[in-house]
Amino acid sequence: MSTPHIEAKKGDIAKTVLLPGDPLRAKFIADNFLEDVKQFNAVRNMFGYTGKYKGKEISVMGTGMGIPSIGIYSYELINEYGVENLIRIGSAGAYSKDLDLYDVVIAMGSCSDSNFAHQFDLEGTFSAICDYDLLRKAVNVAESKNIDVHVGNVFSADIFYNQKSEEWKKWEKMGVLAVEMESYGLYLTAKANNARALTILTISDSFHSDKQTTPEERQTSFTKMMEIALELGE
């Protein structure tokens, strides 16, 4: 079994997969948190690994940037490899003044101006929300580890360099915590294909200041969200 984007064989991928956008973050997790690691994908350098965390089998794989990319990988993981739990672990820009660098956000819901939902021919606006059981478990894990988390709505953007430079303020006014580029596509794909999804984010920069993390820090220093996500394996 293989797809145009994943070269794994049947049984190579666990039921729970962590999905960082950056494939080097996937490698960092495999190298530093997992035991008995086997690499199952290198197509397009989108590295994927399966190993054991506290005795439980878990996989981690990069997804690239944007809703189209995570839409491809999540669909194939669910339908071709039987993945049941998909947990995005990514970076985000803070819309809320209450968020600082390295704060952890759990996306209960995801807003977007993407047309990704048009494929489902819905007569209305679908609310993209996470799986409640995964959300509840993640919050409990965070509390047990004394990790402060912010739970709420995020915005999943199609545009990184937005010509409408003040557009984010409208979303901030509506209580949206942060912006990233994948969760909306993940939540819709999971819901449409009977899987469970959750997005856990670390703040890498803020719309209220010039402070931002480096690419290396985004690969190797966002360990709090990694520790929460790894505990969600079954």
Overview in brief:
This protein is of the alpha/beta class and 234 residues long. 29% of the residues lie in helices and 28% in strands. It has a five-stranded mixed β-barrel with strand order 5-9-8-6-10.
List the helices and strands and how they pair.
Layout: E1 16-19, H1 23-33, E2 35-41, E3 48-53, E4 56-61, H2 67-81, E5 85-94, E6 104-112, E7 128-129, H3 132-144, E8 149-156, H4 168-173, E9 178-180, H5 183-192, E10 196-206, H6 215-220, H7 223-230
Parallel strand pairs: 1-4, 1-5, 5-10, 6-8, 8-9
Antiparallel strand pairs: 2-3, 3-4, 5-9, 6-7, 6-10
Please explain how this structure is put together:
It is a single chain. By secondary structure, the chain is an alpha/beta fold. It has a single domain, classed as Nucleoside phosphorylase domain (Rossmann fold, 3-Layer(aba) Sandwich), CATH 3.40.50. It is built from seven helices and ten strands. Strands 5-9-8-6-10 form a five-stranded mixed barrel. Helix 2 (67-81) packs parallel to helix 5. The longest helix has 15 residues, at 67-81. A purine D-ribonucleoside binds at residues 5, 180-182, 204-205. The active site is at 205 (proton donor).
CATH topology assignment = Rossmann fold
CATH architecture assignment name = 3-Layer(aba) Sandwich
What's the story with the biggest beta sheet? 5 strands, mixed, barrel
Overall mean pLDDT: 96
Counting DSSP H or I runs of 4 or more residues, the number of helices is 7
Radius of gyration: 17 Å
Q: What's the CATH C level?
A: Alpha Beta
Order of helices and strands: EHEEEHEEEHEHEHEHH
Distance between the termini: 23 Å
Q: Which strand order spans the largest sheet, edge to edge or round the barrel?
A: 5-9-8-6-10
Overall geometric form = globular
What helical percentage do the residues reach? 25-40%
Structural class: alpha/beta
Give the full name of the CATH homologous superfamily: Nucleoside phosphorylase domain
Count of β-strands: 10
Unreliable sequence segments: none
Taken together, the total number of domains comes to 1
The amount of beta strand, in percent, is: 25-35%
